[in-house]
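note to self: the first set is below, dont mix up w the second
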Amino acid sequence: MRAQGFDVKTWLRWTVAFLAFPPAGLLARTVAGPVDDVGTALLSGALAGLVIGAGQWTALRRSVPVGWIPATAGGLAVGLALGAGLVGYRTGIGDLAAMGAATGLGAGIGQWWLLRDWMGHAVLWPVGTALCWALGWAVTTSIGVDVAMQWPVFGASGALVAMALSGTLLTVLRGPGRTSGLSGSGAGGEVRDEP
């Protein structure tokens, strides 16, 4: 379903993937502990990225290759380690927005590799993802979530905002008439694009 070139179904599926963030954060924090050093940041980012990447891959109805999952996990791990280190593992709203920008940039770069043939101006994806993740942390912090616990990813409120905005970016960059041409391959060796 498209409204003036905007793929509403893809946007809705993508946005609903915000539900992957709370279990991703809980799993990562339970296994790795608080994000307070580079090792826990890398492990937490990888674990959270696996869950979030799987949620997003499912939301895109497997129209991106399964490599989306490890690309998200790797990018999120590196981005979180760099971002958390950059702010000294502090949890003020500005610190978390900066950490979120670095984390989103890392995840976005990993995903860009798979999106580059699927959407026009895919180079904008990492930048847009960075902005969405920065805003996600700002929203989560603003509503009173205990961010001092040093979670690896923001909560449901921030995830809803970040996924709705990045879903808009996804559908706008994809544009009307783009139906195939993903890098890599999906299940069975073929890339599928389902409306």
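second set (the one i keep forgetting abt)
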Amino acid sequence: MPLKSPPSSRSVTRHWVYDQLSSALFIPLSLYVFITFFFEVVLGGGRESVAAWLRSPPNGAAMLLFMAVTVYYKACWFITIIKDYVHDAGLNRFGILAVKFCAWILALAGTASVLKIIVWD
């Protein structure tokens, strides 16, 4: 059984920094998106108010950034769980690739849906 070399300290540090930045960015983005969405859309009306809210440049950009940070943060979280608790090397690689694939699909679908509302509605 060949021994696996441990990851370099640079890659571990970079992963930790990205994880901390995404979690720090997640809090104010969540507050902004949920508070403005609640007061302007939920109390205001239906689908038209959602489209109008997303067409506002700060709100549309915040929603796209919120979705990107959320998908990235959750993907990092799942990858950490897989690395910690899946001990079979093949399943570990497959799980990490599956999480990354699903994260890309979710990010693309979310971006496409927001851009559809902003551009084509």
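remember for set 2: The two ends are 58 Å apart (CA to CA).
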